[in-house]
Amino acid sequence: MTVTVRDLHLEVPDDVELFAHTRHLALPYVLWVPEAIVHRQTHSHPDAHYRSLVAEEDGEMIGTAQIGLAYDSPEPGQGYLNIYVRPDRTHRGAGDLLVRAAEEHLAAQGATRLFSWVLDEPGNRAFAERHGYRASRSAHFLRLDLANGTLPPLKELPPGVELRTAADFVDDPRPMFELDAETASDEPSDVGTEFTDYEAWLEETWKHPLLDLDLTSVAVVDGRPAAFSAAYTDRNTRYATSMTGTARAFRGRGLAKLAKNASLHRARAAGYKEAFTGNDTDNEPMLAINFWFGYQICATEVRYVRELG
């Protein structure tokens, strides 16, 4: 039995399909769709030095890694490596080889601190700690049964508030960029984010193949986007919100809840059966909103950190 590591072959459709399948087996709470995997590889900012790696055992793909630099962070030298091995193919050395290849690549690009999300399970945590990583913050994956659950009823909008969709901003997405940048910078994280490159945001986020502009809800106040809930779908049965947030000047008015409720109702009407999202465990306001909708925690990840010396 021989395990090897190589780059993902984007030009081979079956390779991308297998990458998505392998990721889904290890982390089923995320929308692993081939088009999204190709998009991230081909549209990530050059300064991210992004790579997708696969581990194979005698030709069978058993592990994957997505690695890069947090180029949009105000603090340089921060890299990430998110590594997942098929649950039925562990203890074969794939994880060790992927970590080694990822660390070598990131160190060569100038990374001095590495971050990795690890499922909150004893074996996974022990693996990270064996490689010199220490536990930091944590985050929950949450799931909502759209097919059988009961959503809160849609409420009458407050005076001066209008609910629109991201599709209404297709001719000029810059207001959405500004709202996304402001809310992302306030998210709890050990890696700060500053969205300053509009063109990069257009390529990476606005043109993402899974972003559903019609299901992405936007609360508008006096013509200005004030809150939004970004919807991604697999174009089949699974729906996910990647970001729900409110501009600082409009917080405390329930606008994010209004936007997300509208998006969830439209997603259910469109035939989506499951809704997923994720929240930092310290993000109590957003967790409270999601519990109000009926989301339940389905898994937890722990962020592990290693300093490169």
TrEMBL record:
<dbReference type="GO" id="GO:0016747">
    <property type="term" value="F:acyltransferase activity, transferring groups other than amino-acyl groups"/>
</dbReference>
<dbReference type="InterPro" id="IPR000182">
    <property type="entry name" value="GNAT_dom"/>
</dbReference>
<protein>
    <submittedName>
        <fullName>N-acetyltransferase family protein</fullName>
    </submittedName>
</protein>
<feature type="domain" description="N-acetyltransferase">
    <location>
        <begin position="161"/>
        <end position="309"/>
    </location>
</feature>
<feature type="domain" description="N-acetyltransferase">
    <location>
        <begin position="3"/>
        <end position="158"/>
    </location>
</feature>
<keyword id="KW-0012">Acyltransferase</keyword>
<keyword id="KW-0808">Transferase</keyword>
<dbReference type="InterPro" id="IPR016181">
    <property type="entry name" value="Acyl_CoA_acyltransferase"/>
</dbReference>
<dbReference type="Pfam" id="PF00583">
    <property type="entry name" value="Acetyltransf_1"/>
</dbReference>
<dbReference type="InterPro" id="IPR050832">
    <property type="entry name" value="Bact_Acetyltransf"/>
</dbReference>
